[in-house]
Amino acid sequence: LSKAERLRLLQEEEERRLKEEDEARLKSEKEELERLETERAEKEKWHRLEVKDLGRRNVELEELSLLEGCFPEAEKLKRDTRALSKWKHYIQCDGSPDPSVPQEMNTFISLWEEETKETFEQVIEKSKLVLSLIQKLKLTLLETPSCDLPDRTIEHHQGSILRLQELLHLKFNIATELLLGHASTLADLDSGNMEKVIQDENVTLYMWANLKKNPRCRSVKFSETQIGFEIPRLLATSNIALRLLHTRYDHVTPFPPYPVTAPVEQEHIPVETEPFRVSQAMTEKAAPAEKAVTLEMPEKQGDQLDPTQERGLSLIQEEEAKVEAEEDTLIHRVSVQEEEETTVNKCELEMTLLSEAVSTAQLRLIENSLEKPEINEEKEVDLCQFSILGGVYHLDILELPPQCKPVKGWMIVEILKDGLQKFMYPPETHEEPDPESTFPPIEVTLEVHENVIFFEDPKVIRWDDEGKIWRTDGISNIFYNREERLITFGLETFGPVTLIQDTHINMPYQSWELRPLGMNKVLLSVTTLFAEIQIHIKGNLCMLASVKLRDQEHGSHLEGKWMTPVPFILALKEAGLNIFPTKHSHFYVVINNKARTSLSRFTPENRPWALLMFNGDRAQMLRIREDSEVFSEALKDETEFHATLYHMVKDFASVEAMDRVRHADCQFIDSVCHMLLSTRVLTYS
């Protein structure tokens, strides 16, 4: 190309570049103006909605406070139910004590302490009543508001629970001693040793007595089970008995202290004082007139009255009688009115106190502890991080008591003063340990209870009676057979052992859903990494609907059993289905900081899911969808702000739907609220 052509091309390129820059600049300026205009319009719209929201906020909050009146009403019904339960127990007259009456509990415990010849079967049968009393006392402490539980009552209940637990275990020891005293009469014909299995829904006893002391008999397996021991030669040749007492409950771990709150000071309502004051005032007003008439009468009594004076006096007396009648009627009306006002004031005060108690209990469900529990020893188990499941296995090596002997038709047995004695293994010695004398761990095989779900292999821990803590040391070679639900491990010293699982294994939740099924019926679904748990809530009752483990149905003994929320939550925890955070859970679960913002899905009239957000101050419907890639607080078109989620939903819900909400049963609302606060799905999802 020539120089002129190159210059021309360069000039055209420059002109094109300038033109494109001008177009880009104009486009950018136009977009900026449009953006500013959009922001201005959004700000104006936001300001109008805020003004409108502030204008009706007081009305909405007042309406909400009226709706929240269902909680103290539900608590009042619970109080009536507790009173009715006590009355039913009183008229039942079945001989069992009322656990809420300390005198009856003391009498029951004292009488049972005097019975010393009960067999193991008799103790197991009596344990059903004892466990029922303990459960009732625990539920009383958990369900009763603090305003209805004085400190003295709490101490009595906790003391009764502790005494019953200790006495029940003592009775099992005494019954074991009686059973071992007749071990020779129960010896197996093949092995020559005694083997006994006694099974109940709450307790199972496995007993083996070494009568032959055969050094080759080192494997102990109870018939028709895989449960048993592999014992060393020292025990195989000793005069001992092995006891495995499996209790489905845990009476070893000290129960946590009851959360005591400051009592609410009740105002004194004088029921009879106010009417008396009104009557006294009316009497004082009438007193001067009566005194004047009384003073005038003696002056006239000495004189004889003429007929005119008699008629006048008669008229005065009639007027006085009318005035007195009117005053009596007025006093009666004022008294009735004051009594009615006093009754109303008492009801209002009662509901106010119940409302404060309910609020305190609800806040306690969602409170977070500021300090993490301290673990004093290295091998100590943190019971805020782990949960005990399947009860406690009491493993004991016992000295075999003297056996009964038949003499001329009589059975003679030596009774030891010190009772049942434990055999020390390894034996205590003050000499230097001999390298050739080893005391290997005892191999133990236990069966995991079928009603407990372990999502991972269970951990085995042992009880340190001296330190009153659970420990992980002294246990080795743990092997878990998931198919047969058998766990085998080596134990250095015998004592209570149990199985634990991470309390927060199902947290945080992957998702949750609350779906209505009809009037006063909902289905709460919580999906975790390992399971999907569905809970029916109907009225004041809850029921486990289904459990899916890895997309497969898993049958549970709790399915089909309706319970009130508190015992239902306890039953789920004992079954291993723990979806209930505690005040220490935030130390063990990584949760997102939602800055007091809650998101809820809501579908009105079979329309697509809508996202609602509530930040503690304002509720709004979001423009984004659940599958949006970026979160935005932008308000959905043609929607407004509201003070509560209830009023937010009210904008687009049908009349029939809102009518169901307003007429829902107070106990149903209380149960749903209790389950949502207990699962804390908004925080741990």
**How helical, in percent, are the residues?**
40-55%
**Record field, number of beta strands:** 22
Cα-atom radius of gyration = 39 Å
Largest sheet composition: 7 strands, antiparallel
Compile the SSE list and pairings.
Blueprint: H1 3-67, H2 70-92, H3 102-114, H4 120-143, H5 151-181, E1 194-199, E2 203-209, E3 219-221, E4 228-230, H6 233-236, E5 240-247, H7 273-301, H8 307-366, E6 386-399, E7 405-407, E8 410-412, E9 442-447, E10 459-464, E11 469-471, E12 475-481, E13 486-491, E14 496-502, E15 511-518, E16 521-527, E17 531-538, E18 541-549, E19 552-553, H9 565-574, E20 598-602, E21 610-614, E22 619-621, H10 645-650, H11 655-662, H12 666-679
Antiparallel strand pairs: 1-2, 2-5, 3-4, 4-9, 5-6, 6-14, 7-8, 9-13, 10-11, 10-14, 12-13, 15-16, 16-17, 17-18, 18-19, 20-21, 21-22
Domain IC97/Casc1 N-terminal: 16-216
Family: Belongs to the DNAI7 family.
Protein name: Dynein axonemal intermediate chain 7
What does this entry look like structurally?
It is a single chain. The protein is flat. The chain has helices spanning 3-67, 70-92, 102-114, 120-143, 151-181, 233-236, 273-301, 307-366, 565-574, 645-650, 655-662, 666-679, and strands at residues 194-199, 203-209, 219-221, 228-230, 240-247, 386-399, 405-407, 410-412, 442-447, 459-464, 469-471, 475-481, 486-491, 496-502, 511-518, 521-527, 531-538, 541-549, 552-553, 598-602, 610-614, 619-621. The chain contains twelve helices and 22 strands. Strands 1-2-5-6-14-10-11 form a seven-stranded antiparallel sheet, with helices on one face. Strands 3-4-9-13-12 form a five-stranded antiparallel sheet, with no helix packed on it. By secondary structure, the chain is an alpha+beta fold. Mean pLDDT is 82; it is low at 261-303. Helix 2 (70-92) packs across helix 8 and helix 4 packs antiparallel against helix 5. It is 42% helix and 19% strand.
